[in-house]
Amino acid sequence: MSKMQQLQADLALLAVTFAWGVTFVVVQDALSGIGPYYFIGIRFAIAFAFLGLIYWKRFARLDVETSKAGLIIGAFLFAGYAFQTVGLQYTTASNAGFITGLAVVLVPLISSLVTKKLPGPAALLGVTSATVGLALLSLGDNLTVNFGDVLVFFCALSYAGHILLVGRYAPRHDPVLLAILQIGVVAVISMGCGALWETMPDHFTRPVWMGLLITAIPATALAFLIQNSVQRFTSPTHTAIIFIMEPVFAAATGWLVAEEILTARQWVGCLLILTGMLVAELKDVIRTESQPGEVKGI
Questions:
Q1: N- or C-end of the chain: fewer Cβ atoms within 10 A?
Q2: Tens digit of pLDDT for each residue in 18-71?
Q3: Domain EamA, which positions (predicted)?
């Protein structure tokens, strides 16, 4: 790959990360007028229809194995979005953004449990730093964890599983079909959960409409489309480090739009989380530079 291709890919992924980061506040406002499951269901249904209309010819390639892979990946993606969206009702956009970012650190940890190989010193140091940062960010004055923080942490676990599963299945199947299928799975499960536990509002308020428009196309359909299209032009390490910017964008949006205030302790926690994420990826940066012909996974 050329340097220009890699730069363009990195900038495109940064735009995707920005779209994800700024939606925390938007979703939080939208949930005042609609249940979280219905919101996720409608959001992903719009995204599924959008991509389906563009790539409808791809469905001729669909087989059983690709369908199974899409179902599994979609289930983890649904869990991530469900925990995140419900958790946003009980915590701040800043907390949700930073805790969700822990998925980047959790990936090598979960991978080591599956492969039964301990992570290296850099990964262990990164996980430790991020965990301490999470405690500083999430623990209140009475040393209790906010219920929303717990839900969003399960979101981070789900996203970590999703990243690992995409890494496993994407090389074997059409990545565009996998993206469309997983979006469809999230839409179906979410609408089912909404029908069971929520009431569809008689009309959508302005924040709901704005939330659906902003999240369905730019932050879901286009985001997954861009990621699947350009990630082959950059390394997984570059992608992971770029995705670290999501909680930074979320915190900045919470500060600028929602006027959320972070205490000095929370800022230190945020810094430790970001440090942990970078340290956890440092080993891959060094390895990639020392072996330029080989691309290492996350």
A1: N
A2: 888 888 788 878 988 999 899 999 999 999 999 999 999 999 999 999 999 999
A3: 9-138, 147-279
- Note whether residue 26 is domain-resident: yes
CB 46 within 8 A of CB 212: yes
**Residue 295 falls within a domain, yes or no?**
no
pTM of the model: 0.78
